[in-house]
Specification:
By secondary structure, the protein is an all-alpha fold. It is built from 13 helices and no strands. It has one domain. Keywords: Cell membrane, Membrane, Transmembrane, Transmembrane helix.
């Protein structure tokens, strides 16, 4: 698994993928939070918090994480290297987990520069340091759990087609449904909306972002991530 992780992670930086993903993520967030005169601009909000960032970032992840994962297995199918991997002393689980951890680690690398936002808000507070640290820490944990689910979905869709664009579109669609689809269904149902929302990413992400780590939210994200990794492994069994 370690060898797969190294190979996959290094391949991101051997191509424009890592630089493009990290650059676009930071650029778009920076424009919305600090430059554009809109409702997301922190300087115009009058409050020392990062709610705007934690609202925008999950939507950006819907496109950026599929861009990271779309080639994971689709590229292996196209080049025929999956058969070579299977001749190595590696199990399917080691291959899947190696690619998964490499994708997730790249997302973490993309998130690290955003810690400068925390320092900026800390310094801009009146008085200095007047911000809800618990909520910010919880929101970052929520982002990691959300990214773990998106990465698992992206790996799964990359096993469904040799075409990376198809894998990308499928990943965006499934990730969007998991993030917002159940909320949309809940809005239509009305009385049972609370129970329906519990099936979606967004409700659990918002729960963690409040700064209270509920084991139910953690179990939910771990379960969904494991489910998509499991069906990814099953897909490899048939190859």
């Amino acid at each position: 698994m370690k060898s797969i992780f190294k190979k996959e992670f290094n391949s991101f930086f051997a191509s424009p993928v890592a630089y493009l993903v990290i650059g676009v993520f930071l650029l778009v967030n920076g424009l919305f939070l600090w430059v554009l005169k809109d409702n997301f601009n922190i300087l115009n909000a009058g409050f020392a918090d990062l709610n705007s960032f934690f609202y925008i970032a999950p939507w950006l992840f819907l496109f950026l994480i599929p861009a990271i994962t779309m080639k994971s297995f689709a590229d292996e199918f196209n080049t025929g290297t999956l058969e070579i991997l299977k001749t190595k002393p590696l199990t399917d689980w080691q291959i899947v987990l190696g690619k998964y951890t490499a994708s997730l680690f790249l997302v973490i690398v993309a998130l690290l520069p955003t810690l400068t936002y925390v320092y900026s808000i800390y310094a801009l507070g009146n008085p200095v340091g007047n911000l809800d640290i618990g909520s910010i820490i919880g929101s970052y944990f929520g982002m990691l759990f959300l990214a773990s689910g998106y990465c698992a979905i992206g790996l799964f869709t990359s096993t469904l087609s040799k075409n990376q664009i198809v894998a990308f579109i499928l990943s965006v669609f499934i990730s969007f449904f998991m993030f917002y689809g159940f909320d949309a269904i809940a809005n239509l149902l009305g009385s049972s909306d609370f129970y329906v929302r519990q099936f979606g990413f967004n409700e659990h992400f918002k729960s963690i972002s409040r700064g209270v780590i509920d084991t139910r939210d953690i179990i939910y994200f771990i379960s969904v991530t494991f489910f998509f990794l499991f069906i990814t492994k099953k897909q490899l069994d048939h190859e």
